[in-house]
Amino acid sequence: MVSFIIAAAGMTLYGCAAGLCAFKAVRKTERFSVASRLFFLVAFLLHSVSIGMESVSTSGTVLEGPNVLMLASWVLSLASLFVSFSAKRPYGYLALAASTVAMLMLIAQMGSMFHGSALRANSAYEQWPALVLHILFFLAAMACFVISAAASVMQIYQQHLMRQRNARLFNLTMPALDTLNTVARRAGLVGLPLFTLGMLLGFGRYAMHHGAMVALGCSAGFAYLGPRIGLSLAVWGMFAAFVGFSYLAPHRIGSKARSVLSVCGFACALVLMFVVAA
Predict the structure, then answer these.
(1) Phi, psi of 139, rounded to the nearest 5 degrees
(2) Going by C-beta distance under 8 Å and a sequence separation of 6 or more, which residues neighbour residue 241?
(3) Longest distance between any two alpha carbons in the chain, whole Å
(4) CA–CA separation, 122 vs 273, rounded Å?
(5) Pairwise CA distance, residues 272 & 198, whole Å
(6) CA-closest candidate to residue 229, choices 262, 188, 268
(7) What is the torsional sign of CA 85, 89, 93, 96?
């Protein structure tokens, strides 16, 4: 109960940080600069405490559904925290990142209620120790994908203002288009091989289990993996196209189309995380 209250407080502060960062990204103002980053930092600390308390209560983090989402949101928050203190104007990115973290935490808490008590042995890890690497690769890739998607969203927004000849463009505190384009494609370039490694581990595990079940003459009950495999391939395909067009054929399609690929790939990755937690 205490860990749930701490997690709820963290979600609330993430929401406050997202609101303040969105306000600063849209309006050129020096207000709330310290408050937005402080809210995010305190939310990250509460987030970490809630995960630690849950891990202690179960004698180790159970690598199942809701806990995977909590770990994914924590990795994303850690990457965002680094961005918040290393970038001069990180508010557009932090607005999206803080909102995503809060949403992942909310889905994880709701999933925990439906899954019942988390006091279960981590049998999945005992049967497949490489599960840790599988999850870590996916979490690191998700952190890269959200950075790429956030930069792409800001590119689309700025290009929209430019087409509309909107004077609000001069009041934005977002990075320049060239900077956003560089961040988006580099984050995608790093995230794609990490996601690929995670997929290869998962597919290898599936192939071994399927072969063993067939050899024993048993029906392989892996129907639940269908949506996961399909969504994983969709995410991989979209980011592979995004990275390929960005580096190998940047003039083949416009920057807006590349940005849409990045955003859609991240949206599919979020759906994949929700399916895994179900």
Answers:
(1) -65, -45
(2) 261
(3) 69
(4) 19
(5) 13
(6) 268
(7) positive
**Tokens 């103002």 sit at which residue?**
29
pTM: 0.65
Q: Give the dihedral of Cα atoms 138, 260, 267, 100; nearest 10 deg.
A: 90
Residue 59 zone, left/alpha/beta (φ > 0; ψ -120 to 50; rest):
left
64 contacts: CB under 8 Å, gap ≥ 6: 115, 120, 122, 124
In tens digits, what is the pLDDT along the chain, a chain of 278 residues? 567 778 888 888 888 888 888 887 776 666 667 778 788 888 888 888 887 777 666 655 556 667 777 888 888 888 787 777 666 677 777 888 888 888 888 887 777 666 554 444 445 555 666 677 777 788 788 888 888 888 898 889 888 888 888 777 666 667 778 888 898 999 999 999 999 998 888 887 777 665 666 556 665 555 667 788 888 999 999 999 999 999 988 888 888 899 999 999 999 988 887 777 65
Q: Are 261 and 238 in contact (CB under 8 A)?
A: yes
Q: Where are the alpha helices (DSSP H) in the chain?
A: 2-26, 33-57, 65-86, 91-115, 123-127, 131-164, 177-215, 225-247, 255-277
